[in-house]
Structure formats: structure tokens, C-alpha cells
Amino acid sequence: MHWVALLLAGVFEVVWATAMKQSAGFSRLWPSVLCIAGMLISIGLLSAAMRSLPLGTAYTVWTGVGAVGAFVAGIVFFGEEATAIRFVAAVLIVSGLVLMKIGDQA
């Protein structure tokens, strides 16, 4: 269950980051509200996951899911550049997350 909470925390990190972009510097109400709600949910789920997972693993996976998710959201929703080198970087981040999971079981 702690891994599910951690992955959901990462998803909500993407939600708040995307909403922050849409808020135009917190000048638009509803994206700003969604951003703050996403932050609170993300941190709450991260906190719950850290009850059972090591700090280094939990924080690394949380930020990695958020980073890759924000990368994908940027391409899909904001037309950001989808270059080969950026995809290689995303694959390396995901590879690191997998190794963290494997290392947590060792």
C-alpha cells in the first residue's frame, strides 16, 4: 500500500506542477486552487508512504515520478519539445527509479 501512496503522491506532484503553469503566476483562481490542493495531497501521500519506506527511496521515487510526469505533461499539454535527448533523460530517470525499487528489496 505504501508504494501505491508513493506513486499517487508523484501523480499529484504532476497535477500541482501543471496547475501552477496554468495559474500564470497564481493570477488565475482555479488553477491556483488546484495547484495548492495538489500540493497538499501530494505531500500527505508522500508522508504516508514514508511511514514504511526509507527516506531516500521515497523522496527519490516521488521526485522522479514528478519529473517524468511533468516532462510528459509539458509535451502533451504545452507543446514542449520532444527531442531524443530529452527522452533518453526520461528513460534514465525511470531506470533510476526501478533500481531504487530493486535496491529497497535487497
TrEMBL record:
The UniProt transmembrane annotation reads 27-46, 58-78, 84-103
InterPro entries listed in its UniProt record = EmrE-like, Small_drug/metabolite_transptr, Small_multidrug_res
Membrane topology type: Multi-pass membrane protein
Q: Which residues form a coiled coil?
A: none
Q: Which domain of life is it from?
A: Bacteria
State any single GO MF term.
transmembrane transporter activity
One Gene Ontology term, aspect cellular component: plasma membrane
Q: Name one GO biological process term.
A: xenobiotic detoxification by transmembrane export across the plasma membrane
Hydrolase as a keyword of this entry, yes or no, is no
Coarsely, its chief localization is: membrane
Q: Where in the cell is it found?
A: Cell membrane
Kindly state which keywords UniProt assigns to this record, in alphabetical order: Cell membrane, Membrane, Transmembrane, Transmembrane helix, Transport
| Keyword Transmembrane listed | yes
The family classification in the record reads: Belongs to the drug/metabolite transporter (DMT) superfamily. Small multidrug resistance (SMR) (TC 2.A.7.1) family. Gdx/SugE subfamily.
Name under which the protein is recorded: Guanidinium exporter
